[in-house]
Amino acid sequence: MKSIFNYITGIFKGVWTLLKGMSVTGKYFIRLDKIVTQKYPENRKKLKMYDRFKGEVIMPHDAGNYHRCTGCGICELNCPNGSIEVLTDKITTTEGKSKRILDKYIYHLSMCTFCGLCVKTCPSTAIAFSQEFEHAVFDRQKLTKVLNKQGSSLVKDIAE
Amino acid sequence: MSEEKKVIVELNENPEYIINMGPQHPSTHGVLRFEVSLQGEMVKYLIPHCGYVHRGIEKMCESLTYPQIIHLTDRLDYLSAHMNNEAVSLCVENALEIEVPERVKYIRSILSELNRIASHQLWWSAFGMDLGGLTCFFYGLRDREKILDIFEESFGSRLLHSFIVPGGLMHDIHPNFKKGITDFIKYFRKKLPEYNRFLTGNVIFQARTKGLGILSKEDAINYGITGPSGRASGFSCDIRKIEPYSAYPYVDFKEILYTEGDTFYRYVARMDEMVESMNILEQLVDKMPDGNEYTAKMKPVIKLPEGEYYQRVETARGELGVYIVSDGNKTPYRLKLRTPNFSNLFIMNKLASGFKIADLVAISGSLDLVIPDIDR
Amino acid sequence: MGYQRYDLAPLTHSIDLFLYNHLPATWAFIAEMTIIGVVFLIFYAVIGLYLVLAERKVCAFMQNRIGPNRVGWFGVIQTIADLFKLLMKELITIRKADKFLFNLAPFIVIIASFLGIAAIPFAMGLHAIDFNIGIFYIMAVSSIGVVGVLLAGWSSNNKYSLIGAMRSGAQIVSYELSVGLSLLVIAIYSGSLQLSTIVASQADAWWIIKGHIPAIIAFIVFITAGTAETNRGPFDLAEAESELTAGFHTEYSGIKFAFFFLAEYMNMFLIASVAATVFWGGWMPLHIPGCESFNNTMDFIPPICWYFGKTAIVILIMMWFKWTFPRLRIDQLLTLEWKYLLPINLVNIIVVALIVLMGWYIK
Asked: Which of A21, B97, C150, C210 has its CA 20 to 30 A from that of C246?
């Protein structure tokens, strides 16, 4: 007799747990305001990344096309993947001293793991992370970037 | 003999029915292969084959400096990146005998616990999906997103942070960090009962998990099953209790221990750990000292003194051990990682043989395997 | 009764008369068959495709997502685009597969799901064939599908497929019983297997109200067993994507895969419409005995709306099952049938026989 009772209560208990589960999905089925996904390309204007988001490494230039990179190469040393190459030129200043200036700051985005060591160790805060995240391109070559702009030069206060 | 006949003869001589689950199989969560011998639906035995995503991280570490190693440890068990970072950082700090500031210790523990919750949420989602309830996956990921947002706001990345470095932290946390955590705890305390209503109490779920793949305490110790999987069998292996590190000595929490050791209790242990992690988080956030120091004084080039160093931490899946042999250079001579998943994987044969294919999926889901951590 | 103003029988009869007046009898017969065939084919495609879309939308809303929204407004032509994609895909046949059976299997599955629609009364007078054994016919025809599933699994020469097919075989053989027995409850109540008679017998109230407890039990059993028969929801063991990758249709590609896919949705439609017809009165509007004015208002809604509305609700319930519950294991599946549904059903039938004998139901 007890087994029959258990059998029947078992059915009702089982169905009750199933109904409890269905109440959760049923609630969300009605509550359309709880939708969390977003329509991505449409919301581009509203989409704001956090300030600290590590999108890609950039070299900020000021209004007069000056950057802060001395070409010391510490970032290149610290990069674990070899995604940074700093090419420098030797020039002789007007006073006759030979001096190293930045020629090309090459950044391989395809090799970068965004560990942040380059930005952290840079002694002159010449590089930073941008919030850009749409990196997809059709050609892999485009992922190799030259960060210093054409004709830019070192900021005066560091140069002196 | 025609080809078909040959196959039939072969089958009669060797009546084993072997299927390969993986390397591309939805239930192995990555590139893991189980060679399963079946008798009807029953699993006779299974052989795990790993190494499909072997990247040689240990070898790569030998040519990198200590701060550079951090970004590779993210990629071991990508779901507990902070804990992996912390393991290496603590090992290096122990070797250098550096004491990090109190605040850094608190932040490190907060990050570990947040990461643990996020990892268990993903596990819950994937476990539900393994059992056929696809909706779990979206609920789990929805709530995990809140943690990832906190991470992104502070460290700029969502999964692989490389934030805990030898000597402290990469940079200071965001001013909104504390508020984000308290908000999240408030939110998630409301959502957790929903998880239980949706899956834990479900009669089908209980029938699918109870009494399956029972892991005895002896086996757990012999095979080195750590983490929630081991603790569900009564193996007290919580490094946070045994060898408290960072801010764990300052908080009061209990180790989740069950003695049943079946799939259902491995599930319950993880669910309880989420609650316990939230308790720890609340205490840590309350006690966290103010200020803005985030790193100890470090030399620009870290060179470990000659010797051997070992440090273990509790990740979301068990005990992670980092063993560094240094010859005094700025790169380690040898770096060995004792990863939790590698040990947890090889119990599969013992747990799953004698059960059905569907149970094999449930058991491997309950062990919460992360394949890159196995292969390294 | 008010709903008779929407009787479509005069229209169909006039078409019939027109054809027979203008053509020789044989040709008229063939023309009629062709018209019905083409209409059903279009209906089949539209219903199948839009059920796929509906399922995707329903599951998206249950999972806090938006669902398909790129192709067309609100994603309305998404599944049509998917169909074209599948049509353009290569049909891959495995070298060691049994080619004939491999190609035959999807057709058996789709034909089985196609045959069933013929006997369904869509609205008053809109009925392809009114068999006097309508329920029996639908059940018999829709269970042919398992042959296709078994063939697909066997001929694919894939171990996962074979396991899936064998599971499906065991599943359908057992659940066919429950489906039949739960329909028998209403057959006893109404005293007929003819679908038009069953619908007509619900003119005063639906059987789920008139037949009270046994009818409700029979309805729950039918929905459960019906979901299992269509290989859906928590009973999708034949596919079981987390265990068997895709079960019996692992090796199928392109439109052959789409056949399996569409057949699943059509089977769901079939089960839902049988449930709606037998338990909820089919196209019969909601009538409450004694409330004349209410009944008259209800009669203004055309029967075809009633039919599709009820079917949609049953389909929604089946989708709700699928997106809530974890999958059962094969032994639990058989336990559910042989230890729970079947005994409940048998007891239920005895109770119904007693009730009908004593006249204890609402007349």
From this structure: A21
Helix (H) or strand (E) holding C353: helix C342-358
Q: Which residue in B97, B117, B53 sits closest to B275, CA to CA?
A: B117
**Along the 363 residues of chain C, how does pLDDT read in single tens digits?**
667 777 777 787 888 888 888 888 888 888 888 888 888 888 888 888 888 888 888 888 888 888 888 888 888 888 888 888 888 888 887 788 888 888 888 888 888 888 888 888 887 777 777 888 888 888 888 888 888 888 888 888 888 888 888 888 888 888 888 888 888 888 888 888 888 888 878 777 787 777 778 888 888 888 888 888 888 878 888 777 777 777 788 888 888 888 888 888 888 888 888 888 888 887 877 777 777 777 777 777 788 888 888 888 988 888 888 888 888 888 888 888 888 888 888 888 898 888 888 877 776
Sequence-ordered alpha helix ranges (H) in C156-253: 159-190, 195-200, 207-210, 212-229, 241-244
Distance between CA atoms of residues B315 and C37, nearest Å: 63
Residues in chain B within 8 Å Cβ distance of A115: 68, 70-71, 162
Which chain C residues are closer than 8 Å to B204 by Cβ?
Answer: 234, 325-328, 332
pLDDT tens readout for residues C212-257: 788 888 888 888 888 888 888 788 887 777 777 777 888 888 888 8
Could you report the per-residue pLDDT of A102-160, keeping only the tens digit for each?
Answer: 788 888 888 888 888 888 888 888 888 888 888 888 988 888 888 887 777 777 776 66
Q: Looking at chain C, which subunits does it touch, using at least 3 CB pairs closer than 8 Å as the criterion?
A: A, B
Q: Which domain holds residue C234?
A: 2-358
Asked if A102 and A69 count as a contact pair (C-beta separation under 8 A), the reply is yes
A113–B160 CB contact, under 8 Å: yes
Q: Which domains does chain B have, with CATH numbers?
A: 3-375 (1.10.645.10)
On chain B, the residues whose CB falls within 8 A of the CB of A116 are 156, 162, 170
Q: What's at A110, amino acid-wise?
A: S
C363 lies in some domain: no
**C330 in a structural domain:** yes
B 46-75 residues inside an 8 A Cβ radius of A: 64, 67-68, 70-72
B247 to chain C nearest CA, in Å? 37
Q: Choose, out of A9, A17, A47, the residue to mutate when testing the contact with B (most B CBs < 10 Å).
A: A17
CB spacing of A24 vs C324 below 8 angstroms = yes
If phi > 0 it is left, if psi is from -120 to 50 it is alpha, else beta; for residue B21 that is: beta
Mean pLDDT confidence for B140-169:
86
When divided into structural domains, chain C yields a total of 1
Q: Rounded CA gap, B356 and B255, in Å?
A: 32
> Burial level of B330, CB count in 10 A (0-12/13-18/19+)?
middle
CA distance A32 to chain C (A): 7
Which chains does A contact via 3+ CB–CB distances below 8 A?
A: B, C
The residue of C242, C319, C322, C330 whose CB has the most chain B CBs within 10 angstroms, and thus the best one to mutate to test that interface, is C242
Query: Looking at the complex, does the CB of residue A8 fall below 8 Å from at least one CB of chain C?
Result: no
Contact A137, A95 (CB under 8 A): no
Asked if the interface predicted TM-score (ipTM) of this complex is over 0.90, the answer is no
Domain ranges of chain A: 2-34, 44-159
CATH class for domain A44-159? alpha beta
Measured distance CA(B351)–CA(C156) in Å, rounded? 31
Residues from chain A contacting residue C61 (CB–CB below 8 Å): 28-29, 32, 35
**Distance in Å, alpha carbon of B352 to nearest chain C alpha carbon:** 14
Tell me if C326 and B357 make a contact (CB, 8 A cut-off).
no
Q: Does C320 touch chain A (CB under 8 A)?
A: yes
- For residues B250-269, one letter each, b for 16 or more C-beta atoms within 10 angstroms of the residue's C-beta and e for the rest, the string is ebebeebbbebbbbbbbbbb
Q: Would you say C64 and B138 are in contact if contact means Cβ atoms under 8 Å apart?
A: yes
